[in-house]
Amino acid sequence: MSELNQTKKATMLDALIPVFTLITLLTLAVNYFGDNSSYGPNQIALLVSMGVAIAIGIKNGYKWHDIEKAIINGISLSLGAVLILLAVGSLIGTWLLSGTVPTMIYYGLMVLDPSWFYAAACVMCAIVSMSIGSSWTTAATIGVALIGIAQGLGLSPAITAGAVISGAYFGDKISPLSETTNLAPAIAGSELFSHIRYMFWTTMPSISTALVLFLILGFTETTGSNDQSIELLSKQLSEQFNLSLLNLVPLFVLLALAIKKVPAFPAVAIGALIGGLWAVFFQQELILRLANGETDSLTANIMVVWTTFFDGVSIETGNNELNKLLSGGGMSSMLNTVWLIMCALSFGAVLEHLGMLKKFVETILASAKTTGSLIASTVATCIGTNILTADQYMAIVMPGRMYKEEYERRGLDPLVLSRTLEDAATITSPLIPWNTCAVYMSGVLLVNPLDYMFYCFFNWINPILAVIYGFIGFNIKKLTSKKTKVTIQEATV
C-alpha cells in the first residue's frame, strides 16, 4: 500500500501549529537578539518549527525517509541561488578592490543631490533592472554604490535600500528578460507581452506613488552631511584608489552579459574575475599596501586578489565610516545568507510535503465568494507562501496551480491570475526577513530587512492596489472564447 493510502490529511490545527511556533520563535528572536536575529536565532526558529511539523507529519502516518527526501528536494531548489550568492560575494570584493564601486560612489557624490537622491536611486535601479531583467544583479551593482553614496551624503541607508528595492523590483517585474515575469504567465496560461501590458495598470500607479513618497522624504529629511564633508570623503576616496572612468568597465561588461541573457551565475562570476583583473591593472599601490610590503610584487598581487575572492577586502583609512564603506565582500560574507536560505526552504518543503500548505488554500477558497475576495485570497496565499516556503518561485507556482481552475470557472481571463501572482508573490518576497530575496538584499546592501521593509513603498502599494481593483471591479478582464494557451513548457523561464 502506498504512503498516500496510509497517511491522514493534515487538519487546519495541524497546519497552524508549526506556523504559530515559527511566528512565536521569530518574535522572540527579534526581541532578544535584535538586528542579529538573522545570524543564527532565525535559523534555529525555522529548524525547531520544522521539527514540530515533522512530528505532526509522523503522527499522521508519514515516514521519515520520505520527509527527508522532501527536505533534500527543497534545499536543492536553493542551489542555483547559492552559487549566485557566492559569486556576488566575490564580485563585491573585487569591485571594491578594483575601484569600481569607489568610482561609482565618487562620481555619485558629485552629481546626486540629497533632496532628490531617494527618488533618483529608485529610477536608476528601475532602468537597470528593466534592461537586464534582474533585481538581484541590480542590487549587487548599482544598489551597493547607492548605499555608499547615501552614507557619504549623510542619508538613511534604510530608506536608500527601500528605494533600491522598489526600483529594482519594478524594473524586474515589467522586463521580458525576468524569470518571474516569464514564469507567472506560463503558470496562469496567459501570453508574456499581454501579461506585461496588463501589469502596467497596477505597477505604474504604484511606482508613481512610491516616487512621490521618496521625493517627500528627500526634501524633508535633514542630512548629516554638508559640502565640506562630501569634499573630504571624495578626497579620501581619491587618496585610496586610482579613480578613473575605466574602473567602470567591469560594470558595463556585467550589464552587457545580462542584456545578452547570459545566466546569472556565469555572468556575475565573469564580472568578479574582471574586477580582480582590473585591480591588478589599476590599483597596484593599494594592493601593495594591503600586502604590508611583506612580499614581492607578484606574490602580493596573487595573495591579495585571491583573498578578496573568498574573504573580501578590508581597507584602513583612519575614518571608521569610510572603512565600513570600502570593506566587505568575499564568498565568506554570504555564508550566513546561505545558512538562512537552506533552513527556510527546508521548513517550506516539509509543510508542502505534509499537505499543510494545501490545507490553507482549501480553507481560503471556501470563503472566497466574489471576484474581489478571490483576488484578495490569491494575494494572501502568495504572501503566505512567501512566508512559509521562503521562495518567490514557490509563491508563484503553488498558488498559480491551485487557483487556475477557479479563475477559469468564474470566467476570469488568465491575465488576471498572472498579474495577481506577480503583484503579490514576486514583489513581497524582499519584505519577509527569512525569504531568499530578503536575505539576499540584506546580505548585499548590508541593511536589515526589518529596517528597510517599511520604505519599500512600491512593494507595499502594488499588492494593496491589486486587491482594491478586485473589489471595485476596475480593469478585471473577463474570459473570452478565443484564448491562446501558454503552457509552462512553452515559456522561457
TrEMBL record:
It is a multi-pass membrane protein. Residues 167-474 form the Na+/H+ antiporter NhaC-like C-terminal domain. Keywords: Antiport, Cell membrane, Membrane, Transmembrane, Transmembrane helix, Transport. It is found in: Cell membrane. It comes from the Bacteria. GO terms for cellular component: plasma membrane. Coiled coil: none annotated. This is Na+/H+ antiporter NhaC.
